[in-house]
Amino acid sequence: MINAIIPYIIMKEVLTAVHKNRTIPKFTKFQKGTPMIRLILVLLFVVIFLIVSLPIQLAEYIIGKYNPGLKDRSSLAIVKWAFRVVLFLSGITVTVIGEENVPKDEPVLYVGNHRSYFDILITYVRVPRLTGYMSKIEILRIPSLNTWMKYLHCVFLDRSDIKAGMQSILTAIDKIKSGISICIFPEGTRNRTEDTFLEFHNGSFKVAEKSGCAIVPMSINNAGHIFEDHIPWIRKTHVVLEYCKPIYMNELDKKDKRRIGVLVQDVIKEAYFKNKELV
C-alpha cells in the first residue's frame, strides 16, 4: 500500500516543511550519501512495482470473481513481499517482542502508537492473517494505492463527516465478524514529537466492543527516525515492535470500558518506555 504513496509522501512533506519554515536537516557529504541512495533505491523500486502491479491488479480482480479467498491470500502475499523489499532497501531492522500474544485463530483489533508512515509496513509484514487498516479517506484519491487497499479490506474514515465515520466503524465491525483483522492508530494522525502520545480516541474501540474481538496493543519505538525526523532522507534505523497481551472488552468492568482509550494507551506507554533502551 505505502509503495504507491511514498513519492507522494516525500513531496508533500518537503513542501509542508518549506511552507511552515521548518528546516530540512543538513548532512555532511558522507552522512547524506547513504540516506540519499536509500531514497533513490526505494523510489526506483516503487516505480517498478507500480508498473508491474497494474496487470497484477487486473489478474487479482479476475481471480476474485471466481475465488475470493485465493484473491485475499495472494494480495496479502504480494503486498507483504513489497513491504519487506521497501524495509530492506530502507535499511530497517526490527526487534519483535511478544508476538506470541497475538491470537492466531481469531481476528483481532490491532491498536498502536503512530509516529511514521513506516508503522504500516513494519506492522503489516507481521500479520498472521488478512488484515485491513483504518485509513484517512483522502488516500482514495491516489491511483493504484487505493486499489491495493481495497483488495486488502482497508476501511476509509472521513473524520469530517460524523455519519460517514460511524458507517466506517460499522464496516470495520463487519470485517472483524467475517474473520478479517483490523489495525487502527487511534491518535488519528502521526505524532511528530518523540516520546509523547496524542489522545487515543475512544470511538476507535467500538470495533472491539461491538464485535467482541481482542484488542492487541502495539508499541512501536523509533519509527520516526526512519523518515519523518529528517525529511526527505531515509535513514538506516532499528525499530522495536512489541505486541502486548490482548485485552477483551467483555472482561472489563464499566469504568474501564468507559476509559478504554486511556487504558490501552497506558499499556502501550509502559512497553514503549521500557523498550527505549533496546533502540
Question: Which key features would you list for this structure?
Answer:
8 strands; alpha/beta; 15% strand; globular; Glycerol-3-phosphate (1)-acyltransferase
Chain-wise SSE layout:
Elements: H1 2-19, H2 29-66, H3 68-89, E1 92-97, E2 108-112, H4 118-124, E3 131-136, H5 145-151, E4 155-157, H6 162-177, E5 181-184, H7 206-211, E6 214-221, E7 237-243, E8 247-248, H8 254-258, H9 260-275
Parallel strand pairs: 1-7, 2-5, 2-6, 3-4, 3-5
Antiparallel strand pairs: 6-7, 6-8
Give a brief outline of the structure.
The chain is an alpha/beta fold. The chain has helices at about 1-20, 30-65, 70-90, 120-125, 145-150, 160-175, 205-210, 255-260, 260-275; strands at about 90-95, 110, 130-135, 155, 180-185, 215-220, 235-245, 245-250.
Describe this structure in words.
Helices cover 48% and strands 15% of the residues. With 279 residues, the chain is of the alpha/beta class. It has one domain: 3-Layer(aba) Sandwich (Glycerol-3-phosphate (1)-acyltransferase). Strands 1, 2, 3, 4, 5, 6, 7 and 8 form an 8-stranded mixed beta sheet that branches. β3 (131-136), α5 and β4 form a beta-alpha-beta unit. The two termini are 26 Å apart. The mean pLDDT is 87.
